[in-house]
Amino acid sequence: MSNIAKTYEPQQFEKTIYKDWETSGNFHTTAEAKGEPYCIVIPPPNVTGQLHMGHALDETLQDILIRWHRMKGDNTLWMPGTDHAGIATQAKVEESLRAEGTNRYELGRKKFLERVWQWKEKFGNRITYQLRTLGSSCDWDRQRFTMDEGCSAAVRKVFVQLYNEGLIYRGTRITNWCPKCNTALSDIEVEHENEKGHLWHLRYPFADGSGYIEVATTRPETMLGDTGVAVHPDDERYKNLVGKMLILPLVNREIPLFADDYVDKEFGTGAVKVTPAHDPNDFEMGMRHNLPQIKVITNEGKMTEGLGKYSGLDRYECRKQIVADLEAAGVLVGIEEHEHAVGHCSRCHTTVEPLISKQWFVKMESLAAPAIDAVKTGKLKFVPERFTKIYINWLENIRDWCISRQLWWGHQIPAWYCDDCGKMIVSETDVEECPHCHGKNLHRDEDVLDTWFSSALWPFSTLGYPEDTPELKKFYPTNVLVTGYDIIFFWVARMVMMGLKFRGEVPFKHVFIHGLVRDDQGRKMSKSLNNGVDPVEVIEKYGADSLRFMLVTGNTPGNDLRFYWSRVESARNFANKIWNASRFLLMNLENADKNFRPTHDDLELSDRWIMTRLRKVGVNVSKSLERFELGEAARYLYEFIWFEFCDYYIELTKSRLYGDDIRAKSTALFVLSSVLECALRLLHPFMPFLTEVIRRQLPNVEGSIMLADYPTGEEFGDLLTAEDDNVEEMTDVILNTVKCIRNLKSEVGIDSRKKVAVVLKVLRNEYSDVLNEYKNYISELAVVEPITFAEEKPAHAISGVVEGVEIYLPLDGVIDMDKEIARLTKELEKVRKGASVTAGKLKNERFIGKAPAEVVEGERVKLAAAEEKISTLEQRIAQLSAL
RNA sequence: GGGGUUGUAGCUCAGAUGGUUAGAGUGCCUCGUUGACAUCGAGGAGGUCACAGAUUCGAGUUCUGUCAGCCCCACCA
Q1: Any idea which nucleotide's C1' is nearest the CA of A566?
Q2: Which residue is nearest to nucleotide B58 (CA to C1')?
Q3: Rounded CA–C1' distance between A841 and B57, in angstroms
Q4: Cα–Cα separations (whole angstroms), residue A616 to A99, A557, A713, A743
Q5: Coil, helix or strand for A541?
Q6: Which DSSP letter does residue A770 get?
Q7: Cα torsion for A320, A323, A328, A330, to the nearest 10°?
Q8: What's the sign of the alpha-carbon dihedral A318, A319, A325, A326?
Q9: Which of A291, A436, A551, A792 is the most exposed place for a label (fewest CB within 10 A)?
Q10: How far is the CA of A526 from the C1' of B68 (A)?
Q11: Upper half-sphere CA count for residue A62 (Cβ side, 13 Å)
Q12: Cis bond leading into A205, ω under 30°?
């Protein structure tokens, strides 16, 4: 082992280790395997995407949970797959067609889809290969795709059933339309942003010549499609005018003035121009008052035919022209600055145009109710809990979901229209003959489904639905969904609704929500800012374990986290620390008896201490993991390994390892080796590669760490007994003494490596044995020699006091007595201050009466210790002053 | 217009169910090349836990309000 590299070089082993894991088949499981089922379905990354920090975080969290459960012995399945990502993928392919000087319409639907599939084949697996570099232990044998045969069958079955139950319907409605993507959008695909605009005040004259009414609008170009003007029924200003006709300027169409409750008397002039074809509210009012719908803007965002000089103009060009013309006509009577929310396409950020078109919708109310209930009754829990409110609030105000998209890439809607009798047939299988008139002239609905429709089925479609597979029986409902808060509406809520509807159970019991990974200035990582950090680059430089550890530490569930290279480095340093601690052990193990097993009597205090500490850490790690506090769990391990195992325990084994007592040496090596091995198992879910590569080299271990038992806190069997319950207290006395000596040396400027004499006065009898027996710990860690125990206090010495022990460093001639007195006085003041607070508490009858007994007892102990310290310091100050 | 969230050391952040002297990483200062590790070790400076009230024997932690930042939702033209 002497050839083990001096520093941690993850590049040397991560790829090989992953290959070993994958070929071993240990990522794979079956419904028949033993153990409690534990299943996570991956949030499928887009097929054309590549790994970004958000994925890295999401995958890391999932892999930690998965590896932990696998080690616990659960039948653990991590179901991987990718999403076809309708609009996003289609846009990419269209972009490449544009580069070739053509477009999808020239190519035709069939050829175009061939191109997209080619694209998918080419880039589809890139991201899953990148996931492997992170260490993700997915069951790759089961990899799925939202448009594969099974998922497509699930989509058709669900669609047809919902249609037959009347929960899917087709209707002519006003919907959000993106003129650039050329498709309808659902409400949540529209992002509202406040924009500065104008409020134009226009005068519409009455047809009878009796004056005019003033309306206000933010979108003057839509006036071409006005078919009425509305006022509030109770508005005294207009009450007597309702029913009169107006002349629409520029167009000279007669339109009615009518009353509707929707109108807000306070806003603008209290009179609204009504354009049913281009505004959702106007559409509703139009329906209520039988107003005609006049479409003046096309799907491409241009003015329609038949509008004279305005036809063919872009909507914003037309706005300028209309405003100019209205002004010229004397209709425009004022312009106000006005800030208002404008909808944008979440994909391309084009301003959305509300348009009337025929679309497919899912009726949400009856689907949402059970999904709300599932959370309220605790069948589904959000971590952190606050997201339940967001989820419920959305579902309680849900509106019907527009699921049809005017795209080609996606699940084509399984509806056919008979050209002979005009009827519609919705069917799971292709329709060639009309069941109504037996006509054979059918054409299929051209639209495809919203990508999220198939994503909504993901937890059960990947497990085999619509087939009734053993996997579906065994692993559904799955245990946890790990995802970002940004897709709770898009995805989580819809999966819950569909899962409840089609499986009768929630798709997962917990939703573990994480935040976004931001750049070092707290900005979202984005292409336009070019501030993204490529996780693949981080892995190449520092290793996947470092990236994983960085992503999981110092972060709390649901909160965003910032990416800092310095934090990656710090994680890498931790890995290096483990690497070198292991290297130290392996070097010492070379010529040793690797099969030696000590008895309880062979163990020293430090051995029993480190084993006791490890047990407690193991318990804390598991507790934290159960609460989804992965960062806390990682922190426990970091602190244990670095500060307790490396900084203290390893140092304390050195005298035995370099000494002549073979049995003592073997004992130390045994404890070093077993504690390290156990710590590696605890750490494995977080840093899988490093822990595997090191554990393989340890003696008496077999098999991959990924299948080893996860520590339970009951390790080391009979090597620890009930008598060892006080090892922590006993060790603390020694370590506190060490710290105090180091401190004193540093304060008077003695080189920390220089040996000096120390005199200890033990204040409590129960500590004298341990201090006597293990005084070598003090001399080794604090670099002091000789250590003598004495009752008298050396006069020319600097001193300190810890619980139970007075410490003197006799330093003739080196000490400035006045300085020493000042130092001790300062210390005394500090302790007195603390003691008075504690004493105050204990004098308070209400504290004694109401606080729990153990808290009161704790305060008493604290006060006693403080008083011991005070008296020691006082005596010492008096002694020095008398000199 | 609703709702959420954040405000703790110079910087980035941890601090379940209220109970020691409020922690870590990083940065800074002083020392240190004996065989695990300078990707390190020892020591140190640095915080009235945004502000104001309330509850409580006791509040960084619970409640109310204020201020500041961020985010989400929302069909007032």
Answers
A1: B26
A2: A847
A3: 8
A4: 62, 24, 6, 29
A5: helix
A6: H
A7: -170
A8: positive
A9: A792
A10: 26
A11: 32
A12: no
| Rounded Cα gap, residues A402 and A189, in angstroms | 10
Q: On chain B, which bases lie within 7 A of the protein's CB atoms? A: 3-6, 12-15, 19-21, 24-27, 30-32, 34-44, 56-58, 72-77
pLDDT band at A848 (very low <50, low <70, confident <90, very high): confident
Q: Give residue A261's identity as a one-letter amino acid code.
A: D
Strands A332-345 and A190-205: antiparallel
Nucleotide nearest to A553 (CA to C1'): B14
How far apart CA A578 and CA A471 sit, in angstroms, is 39
- For chain A, helix (H) and strand (E) counts, in that order, are 29, 29
Q: What span, in angstroms and rounded, lies between the C-alpha atoms of A718 and A713?
A: 13
Single pTM value for the model: 0.94
**A558-604 pLDDT, tens per residue?**
999 999 999 999 999 999 999 999 999 999 998 888 999 999 999 99
Closest residue by C-alpha to C1' distance, nucleotide B6: A559
Measured between alpha carbons, how far apart are the two ends of chain A, in Å?
59
- Residue–nucleotide distance: A841 CA to B59 C1' (Å): 16
% of chain A with per-residue pLDDT over 70? 99
In this model, does residue A2 exceed pLDDT 70? no
Round and report the angstrom distance from CA (A176) to C1' (B75): 11
Query: CB burial class (10 A; 0-12, 13-18, 19+) of residue A792?
Result: exposed
As a rounded value in angstroms, the CA-to-C1' distance for A521 and B68 is 18
What count of other Cβ atoms lies within 10 Å of the Cβ of residue A818?
10
> Can you tell me which residue has its alpha carbon closest to the C1' of nucleotide B69?
A522
pLDDT, tens digit, 9 for 90 and up, residues A731-741: 999 999 999 99
The CA–C1' separation of A11 and B43, in angstroms, is: 36
CA of residue A609 to C1' of nucleotide B64, angstroms: 48
Peptide bond before residue A786 is cis, with ω within 30 degrees of 0? yes
Check if the beta carbon of residue A768 is closer than 8 Å to that of residue A762. yes
Work out the angle at residue A356's Cα, subtended by the Cα atoms of residues A353 and A358, and round it to the nearest 5 degrees: 125
